Amino acid sequence: MRETEDRKLHILGAIVEDYVATREPVGSKSLLERHELGVSAATVRNDMSLLEEEGLIHQPHTSAGRVPTDKGYRTFVDHVATIKPLSAPERRAIRALLEDAGDVEDLLARTVRLLAQLTQQVAMVQYPARRQARIRHVELVKVADSLLLVVLILESGRVDQRTVPVMAGRPAEYYAALRDHLNRVVAGREVTDLTAPLGDYLESLPPPERPAAAEVAETLVALAASRAEDRIMMAGTSNIARSAQDFARDVEPLLDVLEEQLVLLRLFTEMHVSPGAVEVRIGSELEDRALHSTAVVGAGYGAGSHLAILGPRRMDYVTGISTVQAIARYVSRYLE
């Protein structure tokens, strides 16, 4: 039984390898010609039938061979793909390119260009979480009976402010006291870390006091969000054009997603890989429908920060995983 399972996985690996290389459905005859499987044609055909019954491959049309399904790619990644270390020249090239980076911005720009070049996919890197600005002080100034100036001062010295309508009838002394309470809650926190503590603070207030305080808290969160360094740097978008056949009608929604970045930011937020570890998501495993024709290979390179490649489900996973993992480790090292 174990021998049969191993053989089926070997055949699945050969199908994935050939389909990635040729973009053509794979038949039993071509498998036997290209790979030393050590079994008869009848055995290969039988195993391919079993793989199809298990939902790992399918026949796109009657006269064609077989192509991997999302489940097939997942099985390949989890049980078949062997991560190959980068060659010595590749490692030297990565070190040489990244070591010359002048600052974090330059390092990230070099990283995405290198990832896109080595994998021929779209490369993305999330800005380091530690770049998030911290809050020094909040000031509240009542400028009219129903208007309040909310001022957010960051530790960098940057000042953002917004005038907002508020409930009438609250005296200036109320907002002075609220300012003191809010500063105790948010001073020193990163701009991306306000929602939970402010929510806890509002919950601690007597119910009649919450609406007025909530108006100010919501404005603070909005001001802070405008200063968040929650951004993505990207390279290799033109590689989508080279794989246009793989995306069919999905290419326009995919390009929209890449341009807007909000979906990609959410994708990075959902990743929970530690620095150097790799996570692969394939097709329908990605929540947004615009990404269902794609696969993402991502890795952590710092606390809460990630880099990734995005391409067709028919991507070279072995090269992608090896390259993403290696570059994530190099970037982690340079940011230490």
Automatic annotation (TrEMBL):
Residues spanning the membrane: none
The organism's place on the tree of life at top rank: Bacteria
Tagged with keyword Transcription: yes
GO MF term set: DNA binding; DNA-binding transcription factor activity
HTH deoR-type domain boundaries: 36-64
Record-linked InterPro entries: DeoR_HTH, GAF-like_dom_sf, HrcA, HrcA_C, WH-like_DNA-bd_sf, WH_DNA-bd_sf, WHTH_transcript_rep_HrcA_IDD
NCBIfam families: hrcA (TIGR00331)
Function: Negative regulator of class I heat shock genes (grpE-dnaK-dnaJ and groELS operons). Prevents heat-shock induction of these operons.
Protein name: Heat-inducible transcription repressor HrcA
UniProt source species: Brachybacterium avium
Highest classification ranks of the organism: Bacteria, Bacillati, Actinomycetota, Actinomycetes, Micrococcales
